[in-house]
Predict the structure.
Amino acid sequence: MTHHIAILGGSGFVGRHLAERLCQQGHQVRILTRNRERNREELLILPGLELVQANVLDPIELEAQLQGRDVVINLVGILHERRRGRNDLPPARHGDFEKIHIELPRLVANTCARLGIPRLLHMSALGANPIAPSAYLRSKGIGEEIIRQAGENSAALGHFTYLNGPKLLWGRGLKVTSFRPSVIFGDGDSFFNRFAQLLRSVPFVVPLAKADAKLQPVWVEDVVSAFVQAMDDEKTYGKSFELCGPKVYTLAELLRFTQQQIGKHQVILPLCDLVATVQAAILEKLPGKILTRDNLLSLSVDNVCQRDDLRKVFGIEPSSLESIVPSYLNQGSSRAGRLAEVRKRRGEAA
Ligand SMILES: NC(=O)c1ccc[n+]([C@@H]2O[C@H](COP(=O)([O-])OP(=O)(O)OC[C@H]3O[C@@H](n4cnc5c(N)ncnc54)[C@H](OP(=O)(O)O)[C@@H]3O)[C@@H](O)[C@H]2O)c1
């Protein structure tokens, strides 16, 4: 069945991979972006893709762009706030996390309900929880809870303590599914690519905060497969799925793995929490915000799956990072290569 899909956050790392797969399968995909010009060259070559500039936080613009769609996918997310909220409970008030991870999902769910759109897929994050230690994870947790309650099966569950925004219209046939991935790797990621960039610029010693933090990285194409399968699978309605790769690593192991891939041999120096906090307090003031104190709080919770949803629900055998990362870390962008192929074929067809 061909769907008319709107993707919010579709210009990002996950969104580009997802849009490519959906277009390959013949779906009509509309990506909403704040900056069409910045993304047009790479995205507009995908057949069936429409790239629209819109402020998704504006209810009128959002409604106009979701009109006529039968599936909405919300991937919008940020790791750092430009405007910070309060760091106590209720969390992230008036900050960017609240706007992007709480108010936007609420607006999207409301708009879907108002327009009678039947299907909403939402990207959360592993560890997201309304009482998590970091503002990022708390806001993601509340956003996921809003989406869960917006699903038709949760209409009877009552009002969630932090949901103090405008009245919700849920319970009108909206089928929702949320996804909770650990860190996602793949061509164009900002995890291994950023590690590699850092390692290439640091000479002898790499001071590493939260070196023992546990993560279970998952390949972006496995995440995409779960989204695509869930779209038409009734079993996934009203549910939330954890997405992880096959193996758990510490942050230090992942950094060492990156070193091996790019031929670097610096000493990795694990930092105690106090020094790590001072380091993050300095780094978060610099452009690019490599690390913030809120990131440290996120890393204080193990980012490891409790369930094997990729295999058990979706029948996907997760790919190891050892089998994927070398293909893009050192050898330019394989995705760019694939897109050049698409461009060439379209040129030939024209
Ligand atoms: N990557 C990971 O390792 C990972 C792990 C767990 C969960 N997640 C979640 O997965 C989702 C996608 O991640 P990603 O890595 O693809 O992120 P990304 O590359 O940073 O892309 C995020 C997208 O969100 C949009 N966006 C950002 N700020 C916005 C704002 N203020 N208003 C409107 N749109 C905004 C951007 O669209 P425009 O700039 O085009 O407007 C961009 O396309 C996020 O929700 C993230 O929290 C990611």
Observations:
- The mean pLDDT is 90.
